[in-house]
Amino acid sequence: MYKVLLPVFLMVIFLSAAVYAQDAGFQSTVIEFESGVEFESINACSLKAKSSLSGGLAVRAGTDMFAMLEQKESREQKIARVKKEREEKLIAALKLEVEKYRKIAASKDGWSIKSAAWKSLIAKCPQGWADGVKEGDWEKLIVRISLGRKYFVNSLCMEFVYIKPGTFMMGSQKQHEVTLTKGFYMQTTEVTQRQWHEVMGTRPWYGERYVRDADNNPAVYVSWEDVQAFVRALNRMEGKDKYRLPTEAEWEYVCRAGSTTSFCFGVSESQLKYYAWYDENAWDIGDKYAHRVGTKKPNAWGVYDMHGNVWEWCQDWYGNYPSGSVTDPQGLSSDSRRVGRGGSWHFPARRCQSAYRYDYSPGHRVSYLGFRLAMTF
C-alpha cells in the first residue's frame, strides 16, 4: 500500500513547494541570482520544474521569473534615464546662473559684488567642473558646464578632463571591439614648451628647424625616452605616481569622443581646418611649425588638437591589432618601435584621422612629434 501512496505523497509535497515558490519564492530566487548564484543553477531548477510539473504551472513560473528579470533591466534603464535627466536639469540651471553672472559682470556694480557673484556661481558647480577656471572667465566655465565632466588642474596649470569607462570599435577597415573598464584623466592639450621647461629645465627644440619657440606651443624634439624622463620628474614634483602616457586604445577612445566616423566631427575633410593644424593650413602656406595649443575647436569631450598639430607618443609598442575583442589592452610586451597618433601640421588630412597610426623609434626626435599626458588617481 505504501508503495502506491508514497509517489502520490511526494508529488503533493513537490506541487505544494512549487506553488509556494510561485507565490513567494521567485523574488528570493532573483535576489540569489543578483548575489552571484550562477545562472546555470537557476536554469537547471527551472528545467527541473518544467519537467516535473504538469499543466501551466511551470510555464507560469518560468514566465514570472523572466518577467522579473526584464523588470530588473527596465529598472536599470529607468535609473540611467533619471540620472541623465537630473544632469540635464543641473546643466540648464547652471547655464542660467552663468547668464545672471554675465549681467552682474557687465553692470556698474563694484568689484566686491562681482567677485561675490562669481564665488556663488562656482559654489553651485559640482566638484571638479570648475577647477582651474580663473575668476570671471565665464566663457570657459560655460564650456565646462555644457560638457558636464570633471576637470583637474595641476601645479603647472596642465588641464585634465575625466574620461569615463566605455566600449568602442577601434581601428578603421578591420575594427575590433575595445572595452576600457577604468576611468582616467586625459590632458586637454599637448604638453607645452613652458610646461616642459618648468619640469626638465631644458629646451630641446631651441634652434632646431621648423620650430616656433613660444611658451604655449607644443614641446617637440622630444623622444619617447625623453617623455618617460619627463613623466618621472613630474611625478616626483607632484609627489604622486599618477602621470603617464596614454595607451593607444585610450588615445583613440578619447580622439573619437563617441564618434564612429573618420574624424571626431564626421567624414568631411573640408571641416578639418576648424579642428586641426595640418598641411593645408600650416605647411602649405608657409607656417612650418607646430602651433599654439587649444586654438582650434575641441572634440565632444573637450579635448583639443587630437587631430593634427603634432603626432603624439603613446605608451604602447607598435604591432598588429588583436583579431577579437579585448579589455584594457596594453599593446605588445616588447618590440622596436613605439606608437604615434594624430597626424601633424606637416601631414595631409587622411593621416589625421582618428584611427590612423604611425610608428617611431623610441629615440626619435623631430619638429612634428610631441605628446600629451594621461593621469590615473
CATH-level-4 superfamily name of the largest domain: paralog of FGE (formylglycine-generating enzyme)
CATH topology of the largest domain: paralog of FGE (formylglycine-generating enzyme)
How much is the radius of gyration in Å?
Answer: 29 Å
How would you describe the shape? globular
Distance between the termini: 74 Å
Strand content bin = 5-15%
The parts where pLDDT drops under 50 for at least 5 residues are 17-61
Q: Which CATH architecture of the largest domain would you pick?
A: Alpha-Beta Complex
Tally of separate domains? 3
Largest sheet: 5 strands, antiparallel
CATH top level of the largest domain is Alpha Beta
Can you list the strand order of the major beta sheet? 1-2-5-12-6
Mean pLDDT: 83
Given the helix and strand composition, which structural class is it? Answer: alpha+beta
Give the number of DSSP strands: 12
Order of helices and strands: HHHHHEEEEEHHEHEEEEEE
The count of helical stretches stands at 8
State the share of residues found in helices, binned by percent.
40-55%
